[in-house]
Amino acid sequence: MNGPPRSSDILPADAWQRRWLDLRQQLWPHCTADEHLAEMEQFVADPGRFAQFLAFGAPDEAIGLVEVALRHDHVNGTQTSPVAFLEGIYVVPHARRSGVARRLVAAAEQWALDRGCAEFASDARLENIASHAMHAALGFVETERVVYFRKVLT
């Protein structure tokens, strides 16, 4: 690519590591930079399984991130394999409700279609009502609600 990204560009995140990391840290602030960087390295090393895209607002300003993966294991609510799975999506607060998430998901969908996927899945925490609304607005339909349990064995 020549020059800085333009407003409205959706580009692979691989070439914009610092901006990708910045957005990941906003989405998942409980993880350290080193944890993010290690995971990002895994994603970049396996482009057949992972894709990540950034949305740009003003020239050179990353305003959104989407990460998608191919899953070959069972994905709740789906009937095919592989399934594209929305691992994470984030849009900076000042750019929300402006179509950025829709453009990011469209890039992820095209990536999934190019890899033969017939379904695109995602998940969200039960209490994350804003995420539920965003998923619905982007065309996802709720398939089930799950509560996970565990028991420590002694």
From TrEMBL:
Q: What does the UniProt keyword field contain?
A: Acyltransferase, Antibiotic resistance, Transferase
Known catalysed reaction(s)? kanamycin B + acetyl-CoA = N(6')-acetylkanamycin B + CoA + H(+)
**EC identifiers of the protein:** 2.3.1.82
GO terms for biological process, alphabetical: response to antibiotic
Transferase found in the keyword field: yes
- Known InterPro entries for this protein? Acyl_CoA_acyltransferase, Aminoglycoside_N6-AcTrfrase, Bact_Acetyltransf, GNAT_dom
Q: Which residues form the N-acetyltransferase domain?
A: 8-154
Q: Which GO terms describe its molecular function?
A: aminoglycoside 6'-N-acetyltransferase activity
Top-level lineage group = Bacteria
Tell me, in a sentence or two, what this protein's role is. Answer: Catalyzes the transfer of an acetyl group from acetyl-CoA to the 6'-amino group of aminoglycoside molecules conferring resistance to antibiotics containing the purpurosamine ring.
Q: How does it assemble?
A: Homodimer.
Can you say what this protein is called?
Aminoglycoside N(6')-acetyltransferase type 1
